[in-house]
Amino acid sequence: MKRVLPPVLLTLVLCACAQVDPYRVSKDGYAKTCEYRAVGDCPTASLLRHGAPAPYNLAFVEIDEQGYFADRAQAEAAIVMASEKPAQGRAYVVVFIHGWHHNAGPDDENVHKFHDALRLISTWRPNDTVRGIYVGWRGDSLAIKGLRYVTFWDRKNTSDEVGRGSLYEFLLRLEHSVKAPGSADNRLVLIGHSFGASVAFNALAQLYMQRFIEGLYSTSAGPRFRGYGDFAVLINPAIEGIRFMPLHGALKYYSSAAAGVRADFSRESRPALVILSSEGDWATRKSFPAARFFSTVFESHATAGIQGSAPGVGGGYSEWVMDVQTLGNFEHFHTHASLELAGEMAPQGCASLAPGQLRQYLANSQSAPQQFPDSGIVLKYQGELPATTPYWSANMSSDIVASHSDIGKPPLVCWIMQLVDAN
After folding, report:
1. Which of 197, 232, 325, 352 is least enclosed by beta carbons within 10 angstroms?
2. Residue 336 carries which DSSP code?
């Protein structure tokens, strides 16, 4: 009996493994678009089209376990779709990177929620062309629900690999194509959730630093600090705060009188990067620090030596605290008080802000909370960086995002679109 047990256990483990092969393998080729009408349609197609009354296109790009394209043809087809001249108005290209326990399969909850969000945007922007790109990766290594939670360290490491691989190439080409000369009015939005936010930040952290430094020396009469595309938002990011410290430290230093060259944020018209963490998200507030404690217990940590930091574990900019807390939950990074929702909001429409309205909100938010129309989001400035800094971090009340994965409610989708459109 003892000789039989090990092979049996091995078989059970192998059977418990989540799917490795890509989900979007179209027999008709990646260039053919499948007509999508309802859940269950187009289960293996990488290009989908949803028709009236809320038309949009959706492409899937999958990245394998080691960070390389599952099939480069998916990426090529997605770039062609995203960069085509809009049939009407301007193009809204929305990139979504999913997190832990998710994938690009037809039954995945995040896939369904992304469809819902694209339909909302199309309904609110009927005179424009809406296009989505869903970035899929192996968000689970074990398929058995009871065992999936032990894959935290495994999937966190994989999110690092995915972010450092071919995705960076794809994102740069996508930006170049969507925002090409003559197409600057198009909008490119990046949304990363949970470990998908880790993927996004791993891919773009150095790009953000590069473009921030370029902004320091810019002489533009308009906005000087570029991010990726037009706007990026990390929702309930499952990434340790210390990863953001180099950029945050640079923001603080170059906003101070001690810097040889000062960051002039007075010309910014909208944020480049927004980091949001729900107050109801136990996964990043409780589970993530517990898991990180065991993986950092033998590391050495010091107080980060930046201007304004205070010594002591649990206070100031302690490296240990930043190493176990998530980026969105480290309070010293927060630029705004917790976002709130003004009453029961279910926007029927989502009007863009008037020119200059966001800048006025930001100026007024230093003294009083500012309520956005339609979305109902209430914004109140706090922190040490200038109110017009294009790098935001804040908590969200549970009525905006109730839990870790509750990320598709209309008020939040509307507010993101309002920030994207602001000028």
Report:
1. 352
2. B
Per residue in 167-218, pLDDT tens?
A: 999 999 999 999 998 887 999 999 999 999 999 999 999 999 999 999 999 9
Mapping DSSP to helix (H, G, I), strand (E, B) and coil, where does residue 78 land? helix
DSSP H stretches of helix in 236-391 = 245-254, 282, 288-296, 319-324, 357-364
Reported pTM:
0.91
Within 8 A by CB and 6+ apart from 65, the residues are 20, 138, 158, 161
Contact 155, 239 (CB under 8 A): no
Separation between Cα atoms, residue 44 and residue 32, nearest integer Å: 12
Whether cis (ω within 30° of 0) applies to the bond prior to 43 is: no
Tokens found for residue 99: 């997190």
d(CA 172, CA 161): 17
- CB proximity list for 256: less than 8 A, separation 6 or greater: 307
User: pLDDT digit string (tens) for 381-409?
Assistant: 998 888 899 999 999 999 999 988 888 89
The first and second tokens of residue 211, run together, are: 């473009």
What type of residue sits at position 300? S
Which residue's structure tokens are 């990426």?
A: 75
Sheet containing strand 91-97, strands side by side = 34-36, 47-50, 56-62, 129-136, 91-97, 187-193, 231-235, 273-278, 391-396
Output the six-digit token pair for 280: 């109801």
- Residue-level pLDDT at 141: 67
Burial class (CB in 10 A: 0-12, 13-18, 19+), 289: middle
- β-pairing, 187-193 vs 273-278, is unpaired
Q: Where are the alpha helices (DSSP H) in 58-151?
A: 72-83, 109-124, 145-148
Distance CA 33, CA 103 (A): 20
CA distance 377 to 396: 10
Cα–Cα distance for residue pair 386/239, rounded to 1 Å: 25
Task: Enter the tokens of residue 305.
Answer: 């030596």
User: pLDDT per residue over 2-16, tens digit each?
Assistant: 444 454 434 444 446
For residue 227, is it left (φ>0), alpha (ψ between -120 and 50) or beta?
beta
Closest CA to 211 of 196, 195, 227: 227
